[in-house]
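hey so i finally got around to running the thing on that chain from the lab meeting. sorry it took forever, my laptop kept dying and i had to restart like 3 times. anyway pasting the input first so we r on the same page abt which one it is
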Amino acid sequence: MTTRTFRITVRGVFDGLDDGQRTGLLAHAAEHDVLHAAFTPEGHLSYDVAARPAFTFRFLDSGEAEEDILEATERAETAARAWLTERGYGYKNLRSSAEDLSQAPLGKRRRQALNRSSS
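ok and heres what got predicted. didnt touch it at all, straight out
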């Protein structure tokens, strides 16, 4: 069986942050900037609390079957909730989306590379 790679995005909004929490998030904002966003197994958090209270976690997971994406999504949501809860951050409107990269359309460069290698 072949391994499938899943990219899971968990989005939400910080809720009820006190001044100390907001200050803490702002102090670490550079390491959570969207320009450094990446899909990682442990999950990467990005936000810009100065602009709006929204956040995004990006997770990378894998499975062998197409339906494994459901379990991967559940793991990502659980990890995001745990991270927020451990730090005492309130949140709301948590939602997720997942993509199976084996089902993603190939970009122009990848199609060209595949055509060259199969010729």
